[in-house]
Hints:
The protein is mainly alpha-helical. The protein is built from 2 helices and 2 strands. Helix 1 (about 1-20) runs antiparallel to helix 2. The mean pLDDT is about 85.
Amino acid sequence: MPFLILVIIICMIVALFAVQNAVAVSLNFVFWSFSASLVLVILGAFLMGVLVATCFLLTMKAKHYLKDKKMREEMQQLQAENKRLQERVAMLQHTQLLHNEAAQVEAAKQEAEPAAAEKTAAESGSRQ
């Protein structure tokens, strides 16, 4: 809203300046030469300036929009990849846990085998 008020004030100042300078002037441009009111020249120059500034701002806004869109797409891709990698890490941690449990069971079996062999040897020795 403050920007709109500023634009209205500037337009009113330019219009007031143009109306106060209502003299006919001679204009020369390359091969053309003609006479026009200074009001029309001032307002025409102002409108051309507004048109150029608007085109520039629209170009900048379009570039910003496209850059923002590209960044959002890249962010979504990275979030999807992050989720996939987190799932893979969780799966690998689970697999590692299963391997550790299997190794503990195997170690317990190997510890139990010599004890069972000694017990069997002791029983067979007592039978003789």
